[in-house]
Amino acid sequence: MPLTLWLSLAAICAMGAMSPGPSLALVLRHTLGGGRLFGVIAAIFHTLGVGFYALLTVWGLGALIAGFPMLFQLITWCGAAYLAWLGFQALRAGKAGALHPAAMATSRGQAAKEGVLVALGNPKLILFFVALLSQFVSPDMSALAKAIIVLTAMVIDGGWYVLVAVVLSHSRILPWLQKNAHWINRITGVLLIVLALRVVAGPLV
């Protein structure tokens, strides 16, 4: 995979990981309820669920493109619509949403279990990954290239949420984020809508 194409993949995966939602709320809850380690555990196990869905998506996309191009196009548009819906939800969220979780008592096992379940319990991730990865998957793509795509999605997702846990374990950071949540939501919303339009425009490969 050319470096420029990989950089585009990394940027799109980063936008996906940073979008507000239940995953962010999960890491915040366990960080606030149990400290940095618990938030990091939740982030790592969430990444395993994300990797599972990314692997399924990459395997399935090549077959869909080759055998059912119209069905592939329909699913891709559904994924783009989902990205746009996430963007509009972020624009409407204002200061509310995932930056205001309720702290709770937690444990390492609970953080690990909920990290996986929040990822696997969200089948919309399939649509999300179809929309993202359809830009980069082709029917003749090698196993190594597919592995690079999956690992990139996992490393970026895990790296982002570990960073969230580490940064938010410092008590002065969260109040600043809560104060500026409306701007964070607006920027994220615009980026997601732009990404949806890019998906509709066609693949990068």
TrEMBL record:
Alphabetized UniProt keyword annotations: Cell membrane, Membrane, Transmembrane, Transmembrane helix
Superkingdom classification of source: Bacteria
Membrane topology: Multi-pass membrane protein
Pfam family, one: LysE
Protein's cellular compartments: Cell membrane
Keyword check for Acyltransferase: no
Transmembrane portions of the chain: 35-56, 63-85, 116-137, 144-163, 183-201
Protein name per Swiss-Prot or TrEMBL: LysE family translocator
